[in-house]
Design brief:
Helix content is 28%, strand content 12%. It is α+β, with helices and mostly antiparallel strands.
Length: 163
Amino acid sequence: MLHGTSPGFGAAWLQQRCFCLWFLSQHATINDDLPNRIISGRVRVKPNIQEFTETSAIFEDGTREDIDAVVFATGYSFSFPFLEDYVKVVENQVSLYKYVFPVDLEKPTLAFIGFIQPLGAIMPISELQCRWATRVFKGLQELPPTSTMLADIAQTKEKMAKR
C-alpha cells in the first residue's frame, strides 16, 4: 500500500480511484498497467485512509486492511550547484526549452534528457530528446532565438498551471 502525506496537485480523482496514491509532486505519472491490475483484482481500489493502527490501516468506509509497511511518496528536490551560472533551479523547477535545452548558454552544448513528467512511459520520450539534442549538437538543427524559447517556456508553464 502506498500513501503520501497530503494531496499535492489537486489529485482528488487519483486519491479516490487509484489505490490511495497521493502525490506531492506536480504531475502524476500514469501507469498503463494499473487499470488491468485493478480489473484482475491484483490491485484493490480503496477510499482514503482514516487512521493507522499498529498493524493495519482503517479506511474512511470503515474497512480495515492488515499492512506490513507504508511507503510515504514524498518526492525529492534536485539541484545543480556545478551549473548554477547556467541552470537555475527555482522551487524544484528548471526552465528548459522543450524540457531539454537551457536558454542562457551562448551555444547549445548542454541538454537535459528525461527532465519531463509524462503521463506515460519516459523512455520513448527520452529517446526522441536524445535524437533532437544530437541533431542540435551536430549543427543539423538550430534552436530558435532566446526570446522565442523564453516565450515557449512561459506558455508551457502557464498550460501546466491550469492542469
